[in-house]
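User: Could you walk me through two proteins back to back? I'd like the raw sequence and the structure tokens for each, with a short line separating them so I can tell where one ends and the next begins.

Assistant: Of course. Protein one, sequence then structure:
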Amino acid sequence: MPKLKKLRDDAYNRQDGRCWYCSRLMSPADAISSSRCTAEHLLARCEGGKNTSDNVVAACWLCNSRRHRRKVPLSPEAYFIHVRALIAKGRWSEPRWDNGF
């Protein structure tokens, strides 16, 4: 198993199957779902981050893709705070469809 997949799976287990950002239960990484597990680097590899257990967390595809689609992506820590604030206000939701896009 490639190292990043193992790190993702280890993070999934360490986090009890919950997304690091929204804390919802995730589907396995091979599922076709917006809740499927993805690997998220806390410090991006292009910024010197490594594939290590302290730098990789498990995030659902929806949170991961929403963070990276922003014009100026927030840092993982800032995005975590942003998502949790939206959840507290009842303004964080999954799309009405769930086909993995």
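----
Protein two, same layout:
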Amino acid sequence: MTVQFDFVGLVTADMAATLAFYRLLGMDIPPEADSAPHAEAVGAGGVRLAWDTVEVVRSTHPGWEMPGGAGRVSLAFRCADPADVDRMYAVVTGAGHPGFKEPWDAFWGQRYAIVQDPDGTPVDLYAPLSEVPAAS
């Protein structure tokens, strides 16, 4: 059997708020998942994104505490085009979620922005630029 990457799991302090955030980004998550201790959604590429409540993780890992601060994991969502990066950034921040870095044209040839989910996880929004900006 070949090992295959299949799943990203996140722990959340507020399942309903977290799932609402990821629905803004296009994840198809049923409403009844808001009150569940575990939820999953399958992305367009087939990789599953899942969430467990703090209580579930503590029940299987006694003494576990939720890590703080940014950089625990970063997720990235590809947008349709550079204008869609700006649009999605506005949708997410307009819904009250923190913007970590406003959209910019990155030197590596992508329109890029970073927002944060309700638990502080950085979520990148990106799309290829039609032209790669010249290095300064």
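The two ends are 48 Å apart (CA to CA).

Let me know if you want the two compared in more detail.
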